[in-house]
């Protein structure tokens, strides 16, 4: 068994020690200080050399032969040398820059990749492309784009709120009532972006409950979350419930008028909306009951309880990934403001308790150094989830946060460290869009669906194959991680791949015919680790934290930051003195009504939280045809699509297919039994899944995790995923024109028994690979350079707001 002192490997789901035995076999044990390690880590070793690893650089066959762009995802590959693959990638980058400008390169490259401060794939990509003259970028996340855009108008930037987030310790000390819209997941807190030293979340919740906190979980299914009480709700209707609660508070005079006057602006406008003064429609508990399926008396009773005791209003991140997800987070803040507890210990609002391990723990926020990426000279960007729209509609205008922008004309896509064929919605639509670029270059350790949709594939290493420093600004430790295995076959780390490419690329002004020295900064990888560490050490010294010298840190394997003595109180300074510590909003107060947002003129957004029925929900007309609301949540047994091919993930499937959880009533109506193969479908596509019947899911709702690798049966139109990738049926729809975030969770479907013999699952079988002995000839570059379209050029907001 590995012991303290053995080399450390750090991942987003935990930190582990590794030891090789006499036969060379490696075993792992969780970091000794981790009280509740995640079993996801058990898969690290097997995935280092499984049959999905990419052994050599690869070029897609029909791209190599004739520059084809249509067979992405269906083709075989040709194994080539590093020289050949790098030469071709450099030729393509150079050609696209010369013909169309840097804006035609999309390197938004969203995704989680691996933990590690230096080997952060996207940072490496950005560093190189910035030297090369820039690229079209992506903005915001798939996790909570709606919140990222709306909250700065209403209260403060999301990152600032996360840094000072309310902790379970404070909630316990206050013995608060936690009203959790979207629940408090235990499954999701296995993860933390950048790494987890100690999984404390489960213990922290248990401690808060033991101290007297009480959690009311409001979710469509009583899934793997924690609650003292479960209130089932129809998906996508939380805003109506929150409005109903707000109405009871005002109509019974239970709201905190002093707080609303002193610390907020615009309550009057909101109040007249919920009371129906303008349109005669009161958003009261009876109104909310019809929409949400939560009984009106339950709503009234909950509002009274919230007014009577210290309360935390928590909204899970899933509430942002819905149509009008901006409104859910806005209203969470408004509801907490009406209760008057904002800025008091263990009260107010919380933004995603349970979403990841760091939300709700007691720790300091540390400013860790990151790889310097330079400046992107190109101003073009898209809100991250608009990728298919961008590829399909170059030149088309779109609105984003009060601006009108235009989609750039993308000719080359570069992805390193993320997987759009996991994360994006309506994958049949994405596949159509994905045929548009002339070249797609990808770095991947495994033959994921993204790798299979690329033209040039560079095999990347995994964290266990490289030295790094790993940690998250919101975790308790910084680790010196060590390679515990040689890189698989010919795999190289992202830094080396980009260094090889940099040697073949020139600067935008052509003064440098190699970018290699500029990219590496003249440092080897050990020197980079030392400089990132020294940078971190200097930053922390300024805050009174003294870290040892690099060598001593490497020797020890980690540095643990002290936890603060007192639990954090979100927005305490503002509450103590709002004039001295105003919020960074236009009024310096919580904006219940936002003049700025009202000025954007977005349909259904009057400048305060308001209910507009989403396109897809159980109350929609569409539900007559598609009567099941499919909720697609995070997977318990992996991180998104990562490690899907490993034993721990496979053990959660049903005969190799992803499981779909439905209620007994819905199963009976469709003649479905436990373990059957079901077909889940709508107009956009279909997938097969194994049936799991559950008492604790609202009838009319089905639940499936994301992350099954796409495995298409293309003989059907639209194509069907045999393995159960939910994004074949989800809608590629923006939250709203405010944030343009993904509405990933929201989707109506029908489910039926799959009557025919189910096809075999082939998701984890690598594509066919040809090995050629002679040197390859490069694919033809497209002969005719299309002229630059008239609307290309830097994206510019049109004058004023819209
Ligand atoms: N329907 C639906 N869809 C969703 C969601 C949902 O709730 N419902 N949730 C969304 C959310 S919140 C998120 S964050 C996204 C997540 O989407 P992603 O972050 O894109 O998903 P991952 O599977 O983590 O993708 C990481 C990829 O990086 C690769 N990789 C790992 N390490 C390295 C490395 O060192 N170098 C390189 N080059 N590659 C590496 C992995 O093989 C993997 O393919 O999904 C979104 N999609
Ligand atoms: N094990 C594991 N943990 C993860 C991840 C992973 O891939 N694996 N991914 C991480 C990432 S990138 C992120 S962004 C976070 C995401 O964190 P979340 O967004 O909080 O996670 P989800 O699992 O998508 O959704 C949480 C719960 O929301 C509830 N829910 C869904 N729709 C509705 C609704 O309309 N109303 C209400 N009231 N409830 C609803 C469901 O019960 C669901 O289980 O998780 C992180 N944690
Ligand atoms: Mo996420």
UniProtKB/TrEMBL annotation:
Positions of region (Disordered): 778-802
Top-level taxon of the source organism: Bacteria
Molecular functions (GO terms): electron transfer activity; molybdenum ion binding; molybdopterin cofactor binding; oxidoreductase activity
Cofactor(s) annotated in UniProt: Mo-bis(molybdopterin guanine dinucleotide)
Database matches in InterPro entries: Asp_de-COase-like_dom_sf (IPR009010), CT_DMSOR/BSOR/TMAOR (IPR041954), MoPterin_dinucl-bd_dom (IPR006657), Mopterin_OxRdtase (IPR006656), Prok_Mopterin_Oxidored (IPR050612)
Keywords on record: Metal-binding, Molybdenum, Oxidoreductase
Gene Ontology cellular component annotations, sorted alphabetically: outer membrane-bounded periplasmic space
Molybdopterin oxidoreductase domain span: 53-503
Pfam families: Molybdopterin (PF00384), Molydop_binding (PF01568)
Record domain Molybdopterin dinucleotide-binding: where: 629-747
Gene Ontology BP terms: anaerobic respiration
Family to which the UniProt record says this protein belongs: Belongs to the prokaryotic molybdopterin-containing oxidoreductase family.
Name of the molecule in the record: Molybdopterin-dependent oxidoreductase
Source organism (scientific name): Flavimaribacter sediminis
